[in-house]
Write a structure and sequence with these properties.
Blueprint lengths: L2 E8 L2 E10 L9 E11 L2 E7 L12 E5 L2 E2 L9 E3 L6 E5 L5 E6 L3 E8 L3 H7 L11 E8 L34 H4 E2 L28 E4 L9 E3 L1
């Protein structure tokens, strides 16, 4: 918890995630964690997308924060409303619901679907998260779709698209651990300083025309034990 990790790193795309969570309880080896925000770097731009810290959740109130190059993005109200950037050609953000759900697209590069959600009292009771009334731990449920990745792509998620990737995860255990903190830890949400970072703010030699599978990441698994990502 309270750490930043590289999710995807290419020469012209770098995505970090910031994790929030609850301290591990006695007898557990890991914190309970959720992705609170992501920092997306592409070309010379920085895009922030995060869930606000809030005590009591209200579905009708928008708790998503978006910034482009440190400037707030104000989306038009209403489901289906679009916003397009004048300074970052190809960047388009659309509302999927009246609040808390958007798609972010950079033409010919990626589409990210993000939904801000809380930890509900029922989830806390079932999984013993011990969420208190002062913070519902609002976080992001994320879906990634990429259109241009090179065989050298890296990052916690990016490595799974690289040529010859073999998962180190032990299938069948209650909470499989991928590992790699030493490789993917970053000093800041917009720092491309993890050991395997490739970001240089320039175009990549992509695998053109390849239909890369989507990745959905969130805490809504049946087991309820941390972040789960599925292609």
């Amino acid at each position: 918890k309270d750490r930043d990790f590289c999710l995807v790193s290419e020469t012209n795309l770098h995505i970090n995630g910031h994790f929030i969570g609850k301290s591990k309880k006695q007898g557990l080896k890991r914190d309970f964690t959720w992705v609170q925000s992501i920092g997306v770097q592409f070309d010379s731009h920085k895009l922030y997308l995060g869930a606000n810290k809030v005590a009591k959740w209200d579905d009708a109130r928008d708790e998503l924060s978006l910034l482009l190059d440190d400037q707030p993005i104000v989306l038009p109200p209403g489901r289906g409303a679009d916003w397009e950037s004048a300074s970052a050609p190809g960047l388009k953000i659309s509302r999927l619901q009246d609040a808390n759900s958007v798609t972010v697209e950079v033409a010919e590069s990626f589409v990210i679907t993000a939904r801000a959600v809380p930890i509900t009292a029922e989830e806390s009771r079932i999984h013993k998260y011990e969420i208190t009334e002062d913070d519902c731990f609002a976080h992001l449920e994320l879906n990634f779709k990429f259109f241009a990745l090179s065989p050298q792509v890296t990052g916690v998620l990016g490595q799974t698209y690289s040529a010859g990737f073999k998962s180190p995860v032990k299938v069948g255990v209650a909470m499989p651990i991928m590992g790699g903190e030493d490789k993917f830890a970053a000093s800041d949400l917009f720092a491309a300083d993890c050991k395997v970072a490739r970001f240089a703010g320039r175009a990549i030699e992509s695998v053109a025309g390849h239909n890369f599978p989507e990745v959905a990441c969130g805490s809504g698994s049946a087991a309820g034990r941390g972040i789960v990502c599925r292609k």
